[in-house]
# Entry
Amino acid sequence: MSSRPAGRASRRLVLGAGLAAGLGRGGAAWAQGGGQGPGLYQIARAKGFTFGAAVQSGLLAGDPSYAAIYENEAGLLVPEYEGKWATLQPKEGEFDFAALDGVVGWGLARGRPTRGHALVWHESFPDWAVSAVAEGAPRARSVMAAHIARVLSTTRLRIRDWDVVNEAVADPPGSDTPQAQGELRDTPLLRALGPSYIDTAFRLAREQDATLRLVLNDYGVEEDTPWAEEKRRRLLALVRGMLQRRVPIDAVGIQAHLQLVRPFSGAVFASFVNALRAEGLSVLVTELDVREGNALPEDYVARDRLVGDRVTAFMESAIGAGVKTFLTWGLADRHSWLVTFAGVARPDGKLHRGLPLDWEYNRKEMWRAMARAFSGA
Ligand code: XIL
# Structure
């Protein structure tokens, strides 16, 4: 398959035909196959949006049909694990960029940039680092500084956008995974350095690179529940404090791992995005996917429609509030963490259908919901 995007004129023609043929609920033209008609990133781009998805380097290299769906759909890549600490620095001072290069190099060959995820996170933080930062503040700071310096200096020509700190806000009481106390998540770096570890990470990143986009990424702030409201308050307070302290931060990433069991209010979410943007920050949707409800409808059409409807409501709200960049956490259900990761998989053993493409890489209602949201904007 050609790795070149279609030429300008022909792309516009295809896009026009696709928009006319396939956007309705029953639109068969776009319903099947990864390669029919323009991809989501092209539909998004025609309206000034960026669409991308999390990707796995091993599948990209080893599974041509997996690579094809990324080629067709994703204008921006984010490595699902390849940019995390445990992969990049599995032992102290021993860095390994091979897996990350697999993603970035594939994208560069096709004009698809990669965003970085994630420099500092309490997960994928290897045992050696847990022990090292427990030795005290000076050691913790130097371990964090060394990691950030090496990763950013190595990737600076190829990655211009990084999640600097991931999931720093503590989950409030009532949420799925409440943390006992504090507004910030209890992590090894918080214990060693106190709340200023977040400021320090962003400052270290800015020292390395004056124009890199520095992003604070988090979840649990999307839905219309009391604990999401509290988490929104905590995240806004964190961000405002950082700005007051003149910490360099450019954007907030909202993961958007949505759940159908929870209520969603477009107005509530939009006002949160507006509040962040009023602080001068960009807002990105970084990891969109949807966990289905407790009782599933019998047929896939009905299931997929529920997911699609939630995605429509979410995207209309986000777009209305000024979000320009959307990434899903994977493209196809077959490789979604919602089916492979025990913490979020369905307890009844059924498989979530929470991404734009199904198990066989066919476009389904979520794909069409996203296409409609982009093209109608
Ligand atoms: C997940 C991956 O998808 C899994 O494969 C991995 O085992 C754990 O991490 N929020 C994030 C992502 O920021 O890095 C997580 O990715 C999903 C939740």
